[in-house]
């Protein structure tokens, strides 16, 4: 089985996340995409504003009805700082025969060298890099020093073309805080959940 691993705070999950996941699923012929909400992100100074339960429930609402999309609680259940390499190792232990792919926005490449055990990440999973608005043209050479030439070539052959949808979770939180509409930025069910839970309302 070909499993796409998509990590993030998902605070909240939005249409940009879903479009990225669907484009990767289709173009890389993935059997499943696992949405993995982090416990504590090592790349963000502040923790998520939504609770673990709220972020999980928003993901469940957003992916409901899609047979290939699944929620994976690995990092939430593990707790502490969520490192991608630890998550991939945990998945590999349970799915030794499956092929893992790591879904990334192009902006992640700028900091990839600072991630914990980047070489191990490249051995455990094939990165699927999707460009985002404002990001420079995708340059996969950051991976070249971590893998042999044959594996690096396989990375370069995984090209994902996606609509450039410039939506950020922070933008949605700010709009809610300022009592502005988030219609069509997030799935309708997530929008209503944010409203009923009174999420992100604090200034």
Write the layout of secondary structure elements.
Blueprint: E1 2-8, H1 15-27, E2 32-37, H2 52-63, E3 69-71, H3 74-78, H4 84-94, E4 99-105, H5 118-124, E5 126-130, H6 149-156, H7 169-177, H8 188-197
Parallel strand pairs: 1-2, 1-4, 2-3, 4-5
Characterise this structure.
With 203 residues, the chain is an alpha/beta fold. The chain has a single domain (2-164), classed as 3-Layer(aba) Sandwich (Rossmann fold). It has eight helices and five strands, in the order E-H-E-H-E-H-H-E-H-E-H-H-H. The protein has helices at 15-27, 52-63, 74-78, 84-94, 118-124, 149-156, 169-177, 188-197, and strands spanning 2-8, 32-37, 69-71, 99-105, 126-130. Helix 1 links the parallel strand 1 (2-8) and strand 2. Helix 4 runs parallel beside helix 5 (118-124).
Examine the secondary-structure arrangement and name the CATH architecture.
3-Layer(aba) Sandwich
Number of domains: 1
Computed over alpha carbons, the radius of gyration is 17 Å
List how many beta strands DSSP finds: 5
How many helices? 8
- Tell me the strand order in the biggest sheet: 3-2-1-4-5
Question: What is the strand content?
Answer: 5-15%
The fourth-level CATH homologous superfamily is: HUPs
Shape: globular
């Amino acid at each position: 089985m070909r499993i796409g691993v998509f990590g993030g705070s998902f605070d909240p999950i939005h249409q940009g996340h879903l479009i990225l996941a669907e484009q990767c699923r289709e173009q890389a012929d993935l059997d499943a995409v696992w949405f993995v909400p982090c416990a504590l992100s090592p790349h963000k100074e502040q923790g998520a504003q939504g609770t673990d339960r709220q972020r999980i429930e928003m993901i469940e609402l957003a992916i409901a009805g899609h047979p290939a999309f699944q929620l994976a609680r690995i990092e939430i259940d593990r707790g502490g700082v969520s490192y991608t390499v630890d998550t991939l190792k945990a998945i590999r232990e349970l799915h030794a025969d499956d092929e893992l792919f790591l879904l990334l926005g192009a902006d992640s490449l700028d900091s990839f060298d600072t991630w914990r055990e980047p070489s191990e990440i490249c051995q455990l999973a094939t990165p699927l890099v999707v460009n985002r608005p404002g990001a420079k043209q995708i340059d996969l050479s950051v991976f070249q020093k971590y893998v042999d030439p044959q594996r690096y070539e396989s990375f370069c052959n995984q090209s994902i073309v996606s609509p450039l949808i410039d939506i950020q979770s922070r933008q949605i939180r700010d709009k809610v805080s300022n009592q502005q509409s988030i219609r069509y930025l997030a799935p309708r069910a997530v929008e209503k959940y944010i409203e009923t839970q009174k999420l992100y309302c604090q200034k």
